[in-house]
Design brief:
With 138 residues, the chain is mainly alpha-helical. Helix content is 70%, strand content 6%. The chain is elongated.
């Protein structure tokens, strides 16, 4: 019974993907169907390996930004003292943003399977980030 349900589910998925109502070209439809397993593996792989990369990158970036914001100076003494407050803030904020961006990068770059951006090694996110209510272009 379980095998029959699994087969029925697989047929439903393949039938839903393979039979679009307005398919213009059978070759394009075949390419789309053939890429489904590749894109699925790329999505999962990008999420599994890209999320820790995104977390580390965002924790580093946010820790530096928070420390500089707290210090209000480029003095090494002030930066050292401000790191006591800035690093925990950066770890928390960067950890949350990294978890989101790792999954987001894997999903949003699914049209280019296994590219650097899907593993969070290229540009992260959409290129603009909101910091203190201001949009900043990277």
């Amino acid at each position: 019974m379980k095998k029959q349900l699994a087969l029925l589910g697989a047929l439903a998925v393949v039938g839903g993907v393979a039979m679009p109502a307005n398919a213009a070209d059978k070759g394009e439809m075949l390419t789309t169907v053939a890429m489904v397993p590749v894109k699925t593996v790329a999505l999962v792989t990008g999420a599994v390996f890209g999320t820790p990369v995104a977390v580390v990158r965002k924790v580093t970036e946010e820790s530096i930004d928070a420390t500089k914001t707290v210090a209000h100076s480029d003095s090494p003494f002030m930066l050292g003292a401000a790191s006591v407050i800035g690093v925990p803030i950066g770890v928390f904020k960067g950890g949350i943003e990294g978890l989101w961006l790792g999954s987001y990068n894997s999903y949003s770059n699914n049209d280019k399977p296994f590219c650097l951006e899907s593993f969070s090694m290229g540009d992260m996110g959409e290129g603009e980030h909101v910091v203190s209510g201001k949009k900043i272009e990277k």
